[in-house]
Amino acid sequence: MLAAIKNTFKNLWFRDLGEDSIHINDTAVRIRAGVLLIIPIYMVFTLVNVMYGSSWDVVLNTTSVDTFETDWDDRIVYQVEATKRVFDYSFQTKLLVYALIEMLLGMSVIGARFSPTILLASFLVIGREPEWKPIDPKRCAWIMGASFISVCIVFFNPDAVALWINNLLGTSIPVDENYVPSWLVLNLVWICLLFMWLEAVIGFCAGCKIYAGLVKLGVVNRHCDACENINWDEIKRKKQQKNR
């Protein structure tokens, strides 16, 4: 057990850090997706509340007063003391920035050392049979996730992003408008939630399928060994038997 713990600290979810084609334990990848699944779930509740929730908050301990008037649907109109809802997205922004960092850290061997979820997932799979998969298709999935997260960050902070671009490029983008439609962000979060659920629960990697399609189209020139059902553990075992 002690040796397994030492090996986990050394290699994390990687099979062999010295090989040319980096492979990672897909079981740990699925566990990590399950841990990070809480982020899109929280974002769905946030966006649904923002888009479909009430825009006003009735002040507590106030009495509604009948105005003796009706609206176009013959409903009685009451007068109450209410305040316009103001949304603070500081926590959501911090959570999204953390998720973005997690996506980026998983793409490199060095970056994985600084990912809490990779370390946690690597320890949770100790004692279980590893399932080795190449890292390149997973990188495609994480790039997709990072893109979705970036759009959400812009949606929650349009003024800060516009101000940053203006200072950087000398442009004059208005800082009082949101250029990302809410329906787009909500759909991206739903897609992200679906993809992460598929990865965590049934082991279906949508990003890997897209990567395989890019290989067939010739956009990516590196094939996927896992798609060819190459059992590297079996090959290694046969080599060891042959060298005896």
- Return the structural class: mainly alpha
The portion of residues forming beta strands comes to: 5-15%
Overall number of structural domains: 1
Strand order of the largest sheet: 1-6
Number of DSSP helices?
11
Report the biggest beta sheet as strand number plus sense, adding barrel if it closes. Answer: 2 strands, antiparallel
Give the overall shape. Answer: elongated
Oligomeric state of the chains present here: single chain
Output the radius of gyration.
25 Å
The stretches of 5 or more residues where confidence is low (pLDDT under 50) are none
Number of strands: 6
**Strand-and-helix sequence, N→C?**
HEHHEEEEHHHEHHHHH
Portion of residues within helices: 55-70%
Rounded to the nearest angstrom, the distance between the terminal CA atoms is 28 Å
User: How would you state the average pLDDT, rounded?
Assistant: 85
Describe this structure in words.
- The protein is mainly alpha-helical and 244 residues long.
- It has one domain (21-56, 86-243).
- It is 59% helix and 9% strand.
- It has helices at residues 2-11, 26-36, 38-52, 90-105, 109-112, 116-124, 135-156, 158-169, 182-202, 206-217, 232-243, and strands at residues 23-25, 56-58, 65-70, 76-79, 82-84, 132-134.
- The protein has a two-stranded antiparallel ribbon with strand order 1-6. The chain has a two-stranded antiparallel ribbon with strand order 2-5. Strands 3-4 form a two-stranded antiparallel sheet.
- Helix 2 (26-36) packs across helix 6 (116-124), helix 2 packs across helix 9 (182-202) and helix 3 (38-52) runs antiparallel to helix 9 (182-202).
- The longest helix is centred in the middle third of the chain and has 22 residues, at 135-156.
- The two termini are 28 Å apart.
- 25% of the residues are buried.
